[in-house]
Every structure is written in C-alpha cells, then in structure tokens.
Amino acid sequence: MDFLFITQQSLSAAIGVNTIIFALAAIGLNMHFGYTGLLNFGQAGFLAVGAYSVAVAVVSFDISLWIALLIGIGNSIILALLLGIPTLRLRADYLAIVTIAAGEIIRQVARSATFNDTLGGSDGITGKFGKEFFDLNPFTEGLDLPFLRYTPNDLWVVIVGWIVVAFILILMWLLVNSPWGRLLKAIREDEDAVRSLGKNVYLYKIQSLIAGGVIGSIGGFVYALSRQSVQPDNYGTALTFFAYTVLILGGAARVMAPIAGAIIFWFLLVFVEQLLRQAVSAGYIPEWLIGVNQVGQIRFMLVGLGLMLLMIFRPQGIFGDRKELALDARA
Amino acid sequence: MPAHSSRFKEQALAAFASVTPTPGVAKPDPIIVADKVTRKFGGLTAVNVDHVEIQRGSITALIGPNGAGKTTFFNLITGFDSVNEGSWTLNGEQIVGTPPHKVARKGMVRTFQLTKALYRLSVLDNMRLAATGQRGESFIRGLFPFIWRRQESAITAQAEELLTRFQLIDKKSDFAAALSGGQRKLLEMARALMVKPEIVMLDEPMAGVNPALKQSLLGHIKDLRDEGMTVLFVEHDMDMVRDISDWVIVMAEGKIVAEGTPESVMGNQAVIDAYLGAHHDLSLDEGPR
User: How many structural domains is chain A composed of?
Assistant: First the structure.
C-alpha cells in the first residue's frame, strides 16, 4: 500500500479542480436555498448553460473566449428570468418542480441529435476552446510535491479558480451582511411578513435566483475549461444533489460552508477510492468481496454512509449552529 | 389612566358623537371607504360588505363570530387576497388590486392572526428590516457598506427606541424564535411601527397573550391612536373591545350587521343574534320548526 500516493491524490483532489466546481455550484445554492429559501433543484442547468455557452461560442461560432464568458453570464441571467418570472409568485415547491425539470430539459436538448452540429449531441463538444485561457498560463512545469501534484494546466486552473472563488466569497460576505442580505433571510423566514412591511418580495427572489445562477454558471466555466470538453451527461441531477450535499455538509446560510463542504466531499471521495483500490490490488480485501471494477461504486456507498452519520450526529453541518437549526421546527 | 390619554379618547369619541349607529354609516373624516366588497370561495360568500368607513385617528374594533369574514376582509383591504368585486380607497386613493407591499408603503400596515416573527433573524434585525427607503436594500449598493452604514445606525437607533418602549430591548440580540407568544405579538406591533404607518391593522392582537402582557399591549394600542395613527383591529376578547375601542363594527356571515360605540353595540339585538343565533332565548317548543 502506497500511503504517500493515497495522500497525494486525496489532497490534490481536496483543493483541486472538482472542488472548485462544486464549491461554486454550492455557493450559488447557498444564495438560493441557504439565504433566500428558494428550492432550486436545477443548479446543474446553470452549470450546463455556463459550460455550453463557452464551448459553443468558441468552437461552433468562433467567438473569442472572453466574449464567450460574458455570453455565458448573460445566458444564465436569461435562464434565471425564464425560471423565476412564472414560478416565483407561486409557492416554494413549484420552483423546485420547475427547476428540476428545466435542468433536465437543458441536458436533453444539449444531447439531442437535432442540434448535433452546434451542441455536439450526446458526445458533447471537445476542442481547444480554452486555448486563450491556457495561453496565459505562466507555468511550464506542473507541481510535483510529495503531497500535491498537478499538471501545468490543472495548476493554472486551480490557481485562477481559487482566486475567483475568493473574490465571489468576498462579494457574498458583503451581500449577506447588507440590508439586501437581511431582506433575503427575512424572505426565507416568512414572505408574507416581509410583504406586509412594504418590501417587493418578488423582485428580491428574482435577484437572488440570478445571483446564485450566475455563480453556478461560473462553476460551469471552470468545468468546461479544465477539461477542454463539455459532455451533456455531466450536468445531470446528480451534480445538483452533490452540490446540495456539499452545502449541507458545510452548513447552509454560512458564507464559508460551500468551501469546507466541497473540500471534505472530494477528499473523502478520492481517499476512499484510492484506499480501496490499493487494498484490493494488494490483496487485503479478497476479490470475492470487492473487485477492482466495483471500487468506483463502493466508494459512493461508503461516502454516503459517512455523510449519513454526519447528518445524524452533526445535522447543522460544519459551520452551522445547532440551536439555530432547531428553530426551524417553528415551535 | 394618564390624563393625556383620556384627552385623545375624548377627541376620538367626539368625532363619533354626530354619527348615527347604523351599519355602513358615513363618518366625518374617513381614512378608508369601502364599497360593495365581495369575496367568494366557491359557493361561499365570505365577505359581502355593502359600505363601510373607518374614522381617522380612532380605534375601531371589527368583531363578529367565527367565520364572519373579518380576516378575509383584512386580507382584501391590505392586498393579500384579491376581491371578486368592489372598491375601496385609502386617503381618497383607489387601492383595489394594489399588491400588498405597495399598500404598506402607502401607509397601511397589518399584523397577522398567527404571528409572523422572522424566527432566525435577531429581534433587532426583525425591526431594522422594516425601515423604509433603505439604500442598502439595492443589490449593488448593498455591496458598499459606506453607502448605507450611516442610515443603518439611524435605523438601529430608531429600532432600539421602539424596542425599549415595547420592553423588548433586553432581547434584541436573541433570535425572534426565542420570544414567548406574547412577546412576538409585541415585536410584530413594534415592527409595524418601523414602517411609520398611518393606519395599523391588527389581526387578533390578544390571541394567546397572557393577562399580564395584555394590559401592556392595550396600553401600546392606545398609544398608537394618541400618536395620531388610526387603528383597526379584529378581536374576540370583548373586555378588550370595550376597554379600548372608540367604535365597533360587527360582521356576521360576511355582512356588516351593526356599528356603534362599544356600549351601544353590546346591547344591540342584531349583535346578540349574530353571536348566539336569532332564537336563542326561546324555549324549544316555542322555537321555529
């Protein structure tokens, strides 16, 4: 068993590209669910819109990457308006139904044969659409430390990604501690009370949906650029639910929660996988119990078990306040 | 009772001296005038008010048996429910179809039968939220604390003053969920005052409040009138209605069946019938078959 390798893989994942993607998706959900109480089950759709906007604009329409990023943000705003305008006047559960359906519609449209020429069908789009981004990469060599290892491109994505995450977190912190953020939290508690005090609840819910959706689409940019490829089935409902897992793990309505949640989630996922894989190949786990090909599935079971235990013994998440969580019971 | 308080009471009562106590009667200086307000839920007509006026600067009680349509009428007037037909004005301005937040901005603020304290916000934040015209409520300006910080401290001072008056100042950092039922009623009333309303609509302010706190709530409601606000409240507690209201409007089965001073209404046959049924004082063999 090569414990150094296991540690290196796990730590590299813990602060790696996937962590950044899931942190951004969860920061957006934190705005929606944690602060405003909007049940958005279609966050994957926002990531898909971000990722596909970049890939399609650059590959199919030959537009500059930087303009493509702006198009991606614009498209996610349009998606938020499309989802929000008809549903935010209704009760909260309608938004949940509409968003989960919208996320799936986006994925199905992206993989449909009809738009094969522009969206690439079920294979998605693979190409050098991140060229302009990686041309700026100052690293000619990757990182190769005993506990951390990245290729030059991944290192560039990770550094730029964390700077973007830090910037968004600062904005988030300013927003949730402003009167604007106080209004969102009040809407989460009771919309009608907020209306009775002369506040336009609908307007603020739309703003929250847009803000969280744009943050999600930035996660989509990272997803697309880091892989230089977009594939429709990466943006299924599982992505949304993992983002929720990350958020709840950290503790909803806490600014830093998505970061801690994403780091723990990816560390566990990779650590368990590498550990099992090595234990199986070294013969510590007999072949009849777990085969090498089953490790991928087993790790989700074990991580799922770990998360269940965490939710049972620490339901408020890492940063949450158990007393505050108990208030939700509306005593 | 302090002398100044009774002076305001006398002023309010003097305004009603020339008003005949009949349903739908005109008032000398109405703040709300409603005409032919109808709300149906399927086959049930919950509200069917022909004409009603609410006198400015007075405490008006809206009473009636359960299911009389009092809360529905409240919901309609404040924009929380939409009307089938009818119209009403606030300060002479038509406000039918106006969304609730705009009604509140026009100076009519309501509370709820089931108290709506914002549980996971501190008591102080509950108060500060309600202040109007906050610069920091805009997404962009919210990002720059120097734009709204000065206004925020003015709002905080105003909120703390009200919390002191309502004896909640010691609780200001607690979550609103940590308050007792009666304290939540106090908080809701104090919060409504942060909007600086002209008319306060209280939906069952005494429901679930212990007797000690009741006295303090009564005092606060009288203070609202004494500061020039109009109060319209729904209530089942007759002692309270008798104690603080200047005028009483009685609803039954969606209609207004009586109006008058508390004393005259309590003895009114239509009111007794509404509460107890028209033939309550007949023995069974005399009653209708």
Answer: 1
